[in-house]
Amino acid sequence: MQIKFILGNEAVVEGALSAGCTFFSGYPITPSSEIAEAMSRELPLRDGVFLQMEDEIGAMGVIVGASLTGRKVLTATSGPGFSLKQEILGYASFTEIPCVVVNVQRGGPSTGLPTMASQSDFQQARWGTHGDHPIIVLSPSSVQECFDYTVKAFNLSEKYRTPVIFLMDEVVGHLREKVSIYDSSEIEVEDRAKPTVPPEQYHVYGDGKELVPPLASFGSGYRFHMTGLAHNTLGLPASDPGNVVGFITRIHEKIEKNLDDIIIHKEFFMDDSEIVLVTFGSTTRSAISAAELLREKHSIKAGVLQLVTVWPYPYHLIEKLNNKKKIVVPEMNLGQMRGEVEKVITDKKILGVNRIDGNMITPDEIIEKILKG
């Protein structure tokens, strides 16, 4: 274990390398560029591959192809690039190809605020592509979490044969903190399941009963087909209704039946709380400070529920807040997560603390809204 004083973006690189990532492809874009820069230095020293592509679409396509050769893969971008990656993200979800996609959020829409913070890609991370498919999205609030949950993102991607989005923001990406870096021998590292049957018996999508079928690597002697069309267990196009329903149901169930493994959250001052701040990402930092000040200066029992896994959304955790006097959702957008809370808590007003000017929400802003609210 090493102690380093580094940026959140650099901690992502450390986490990816410890998780076994050997392939990165990207296109420079603020505020994520430090990830590509560090990968360009580190991967060649580890027999890995770094590719700077001509655009964001190419970068996404390349990591999908590299993943099929058996490599653990990463790309990193921000809002405009994340929009461009959506079609291939949908392809990777439907074909069940493991990959990790980092989005260091900045202000939008369009080119927006390239050097300033936002959390306005919250809904896009879930619903950016067309069609019915699940997605796993993790969101860190500190540099240490950037390391820890990048490792977790790779593990979930490999374990469930799915893209995982690592939803950061400019504050966390450019924050510099002390972080504990562990190598692969000191942490849990998951690798995708490989086929145990002979090549002539292999079906890339299993026997229809396995939630997560083993994935052979290109060049390993196993022949299989990949297509974005609806497909059968061999990967060949198949559009009959029963096959389509069974396939799409299975890719949802492999996530929905494993929520205990996938959902990560943290609680602060929750044991006796009467007011709860529901947060994700960097806003968690202000929320914790606000809760401390509310207790110390105003004798208000405030707690914080930090959602690390933001998709699939942990509605069951929100349901447990029904007995609280007040629920507050601070976020650097106009209420994208508040809407998810309101789906569950219907008998009381959910207070939103929102900011869209590229600046971080402060503890004082949260406190003021609670005292007025």
Structure commentary:
- With 373 residues, this protein is α/β, with parallel strands linked by helices.
- The chain folds into two domains: 2-186, Thiamin diphosphate (ThDP)-binding fold, Pyr/PP domains (Rossmann fold), CATH 3.40.50.970; 266-372, Rossmann fold.
- It is built from 14 helices and 15 strands.
- The chain has helices spanning 8-19, 33-42, 56-67, 79-84, 86-95, 122-127, 143-160, 170-174, 241-256, 259-262, 283-298, 315-319, 338-344, 363-372, and strands spanning 2-7, 21-26, 49-52, 72-77, 99-107, 113-117, 136-138, 163-169, 176-181, 265-268, 275-279, 302-307, 309-311, 326-331, 350-354.
- The strands form three sheets. Strands 2, 3, 4, 5, 6, 7, 8 and 13 form an eight-stranded mixed β-sheet that branches.
- β7 (136-138), α7 and β8 form a beta-alpha-beta unit.
- α1 crosses α2.
- The longest helix has 18 residues, at 143-160.
- The chain starts with a strand and ends with a helix.
Unreliable runs: none
Biggest sheet character: 8 strands, mixed
Distance between the termini: 46 Å
Share in helix: 25-40%
What's the tally of helices? 14
